[in-house]
Amino acid sequence: MNIEPVRKLPWSLRYAALACACVLLIAATAFLVIRIAVLVAPLTMAIVVAALLAALLQPVTELLDRWLPRSLAALGGVLLLLAVLVVPAVLMWPTVAKQASELPAQLEQGWGRTQEWLVSTFGVSEQQLSAALDRVGQSVQSSAPDPTASAMSLVEGVGAALLALVLMFFLLKDGPKIGDWLLRRLPEPSRERWGEAAGNGWNALAKYARGTIAVAAVDALGIGLALILIGVPLALPLAVLTFLAAFVPVLGATVAGAVAVLVALAANGPLDALLVLGAVILVQQLEGNLLEPLIMGKALRLHPAVVLVAVTAGALTGGVAGAFLAVPLTAVVHQVASTLSAVRAESPGSEPRREPVAAGQ
């Protein structure tokens, strides 16, 4: 094969062609990995959630390991997680059930006020509103999930949750041993740099989990207090929704805020809906400009555009689960790749990168 014509090309063109080829290869590999992960979505979800929770609870396990055997320390981490999840749910259930039973009457009253406001402000007739509601109802019915598929999804979700708990226990109990076993499968010269990269990726995962929980708690507290002060029904479940939605960056906060505004509009009318919208915007601005830089620090080091693309790609390929897992996976991959690049650049055998000399120098 004659490569002389290639050598005669400008270095910039050759570099651009090589970069495009690398991008295409990475994109094709990522697409293949994502498609395989989607095909086994419950297993993928269980593994990633187990890793997230294990990274979050590792300090607790290490603390208990000083006085207890490793197995009991890991079990203590699992029991702590279950207590954190179950106890608030049990305490909140009576309030949520009571508010949910009162919601239909409040929605009916609020919708009547909203209809009057729409007719008086925009001149919309009641017939037009009824026709629009009929179209919305037909769309909702047509997009409603099949009961059989919903039951299967519920079974898969329960199975994935149980598997995640079991995997989390073993990661807490034997995490270092599992890491050492995986490293021994690699060639000896590359074990050190891959071990450092894996450690940095694990630390990024732990920082992301802790930072996201802290930010989500502050968001839920702020939105919940605003809803209580404004007098919006279902303030507690809406605060819980805000907490859970914070684990899906960008899109989650938008969806939770929209739900809160819609509930306020239907139950209390347009004025309270505008107040809730202002509270949601204020809390989100405080989160993005103050809380995330302060709490998250450099745990992610990802540009907001990268986060948005990752969440969108995850949602398109894996639905809600994909959107939830996209950012932590992206952060881990970015941290591992950055560490490998830095280690390779600092290795004794690597040559420093030579910058091209501009013409005329």
Task: Characterize the structure shown.
By secondary structure, this protein is mostly helical. 85% of the residues lie in helices and 0% in strands. The protein has one domain. The protein has helices at residues 4-7, 11-39, 41-64, 70-122, 126-142, 147-184, 188-230, 235-245, 251-268, 270-296, 304-346. The longest helix has 53 residues, at 70-122. The two termini are 34 Å apart.
Question: Concise description?
Answer:
By secondary structure, the chain is mainly α. The chain has helices at residues 4-7, 11-39, 41-64, 70-122, 126-142, 147-184, 188-230, 235-245, 251-268, 270-296, 304-346.
In terms of topology, how is this protein built?
Layout (H helix, E strand, L loop, with lengths): L3 H4 L3 H29 L1 H24 L5 H53 L3 H17 L4 H38 L3 H43 L4 H11 L5 H18 L1 H27 L7 H43 L15
* CA-CA gap between termini: 34 Å
Structural class: mainly alpha
N-to-C order of helices and strands: HHHHHHHHHHH
- Count of helical stretches: 11
Can you tell me the residue ranges where pLDDT is under 50 for at least 5 consecutive residues? 350-361
How much of the sequence lies in strands comes to under 5%
- According to DSSP, the number of beta strands is 0
| Arithmetic mean of pLDDT | 73
Gross morphology is globular
Percent of residues in helical segments?
over 70%
How many discrete structural domains? 1
C-alpha Rg (nearest Å): 26 Å
Spell out the key features of this protein:
transmembrane helix; 361 residues; disordered C terminus; globular; mainly alpha; single chain
